[in-house]
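Q: Hi! First time asking for a complex rather than a single chain. Here are the components, and I think there are two in total. Is that enough to go on?
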Amino acid sequence: MSLNYLLRRLGLFVVVVWAAVTLIFFLPRLASERNPIVERMGQTAASAGKLAEGVGKMVKAWEAKFGLDQPLWKQYLRYFRDVLHLDFGYSLAYYPTKAIEPIIRALPWTIGLFGIATLISFLLGSLGGALLAWPKAPRFLQYLLPFFLTLSAVPYYLLGLVLLFLFAFTTRIFPLSGGYPIGTVPSLSFPFILEVLRHAVLPGCAMIIAGAGFWALQMRGMMIIGLEEDYIAFAEAKGLKGNRIFFRYALRNVLLPQATSLAITLGQVISGAILVEVVFGYPGLGTLLLKAVSGFDYNLISGIVFIIIIIIAVATLLVDLLYPLLDPRITYQRRVK
Amino acid sequence: MKALGKRLSRVGAYCRRNPKLVSGVSIILTLVLFWLIGSLLLSPTRAQPISGLPDQPPSWRYLLGTDSNGRELLAVMVVGTGLTLRIGILAGVIGLGIGIILGFLSGYYGGLLDTVIKGIVDVLLTVPPLAVLVVIAAVIARAMTLDFMIVIVASLSWMLPTRTIRAQVLTMRERAYIQVARLSGMNSLEVIVKELMPNLLPYLAASFVGATAASILACIGLEALGLGPQSLPTLGMTIFWSISFSAMLRNMWWWWLPPIIIIAILFVGLFLLTAGLDEIANPRLRRRM
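A: Yes, that's all I need. Here is the structure of the assembled complex.
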């Protein structure tokens, strides 16, 4: 891997982070002319039932405290500095904790469940899709195609709702919501881990089933094209075994574009995961986001959104840097002309 | 007349070879028909709160029952389907429009412009649309309107079309027939409109359907979070209300199931449409199955 490529790729990562901070800073200021301090004071005054004297003075004082009386570019620089220290300000709903604390508590749940679910669905789907295009695969697989096709088109969280109805509400095999039983304290004991797994089955399955269909269809399309290549005909002519042709010749060569699309679609996967969490009341970032949204907890919202963008940027970076391991044709050396 | 008949039979023959396209088109048309006939028979006011008794199961009077606020769910489905189709088509048109302009500029002219546009697309593609939408929607909260939502969603749906079109233009730019056109005195705009566009039609159509599907997905997700236009009976809002009124625990299947079915049908239709268009653009996919 050349240094040049590494630097360019890291440069793109920095630009993504910069764009994320800039979007989160400017979007609300473009979208609304409202002054959050005045808004907040108005709410407090309304709940107190009377208008306190000197509200204007208080607004001024708070504005000075939060730096809102500064020019926009100074606020921007200050915001940038804070965000890079993961300081999103105080959470309104969880005051007086900082917005980052509930985020850090929710993060392992989201990454754990949806990281694993995405990986499983990617592997299962890719293998299934490759087999769908493989002439020597068992025939019954062909009948699965319409099934895959339908599921891949349905958003994760809708599938989640249906699973919830079938396996938690009607038959009560799995719990209805949450990440662990209410009343237990999270610990690393065996029964607790078992409960966590039991709670993760349905939301995980929703993502795996819907995701696998998507990967399978994409893989099938590329595999059909890949199987027409000359090296496949050559491998067959050499008399290689079917398995070897499938895994070492056909599958391996189409894995790269598949991995690329994993990186590209991660954003959509995460958006879907957020809603799956909401449906299942799973204690991750999605449910936290819903809470933040309904409580108008602006600092928490921007914190969650920033973290989500960073997760995606890091994951994309990792996929890009892992390419040479997947595909030896790529060296990132500059070609000698 | 005879020529027309011949042409029609040729179209028919092609349709038999591409069943995905046909079934996709017919599924979408069915939904359009459902909306058209529904809005003729049911007045949209019945989708508003307190138009019927609350919490009624399906009956002859309320065919799909009512929700806890007394909206008639069949009317909600009709209005919601119409709104969702409108969101998808408008956002798709805007997204594809921007995608065409930027994709052609980037692919055909190249150079610094190409680097800048490609860079912006690469950066924005890593930002999940739903995240940006949530930030905006949370700030403007109650002031969210349908048109505003369409504009925001559309402004986030042009990246993939731009990327696809750019890639295709890059491969076509150096083909012999483009060079012939250029040598015979066509200017760049003529080459783009008369030579490149017609050859890219299947890709443009697939990009349009893709942008439409992505926009609808983002909008329904936003609505399901309770951040859509508050006063409109959209499909996503129905899901949001059914979750917040715990319709499932109260066994009110007629509340949460119909929007899921309609959304699923819509996405399957759009998906088949994309797959069918892909086969036109890339005939090698048609082989087997």
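A: The first helix of chain B runs from residue 2 to 17. Let me know if you'd like any chain examined more closely.
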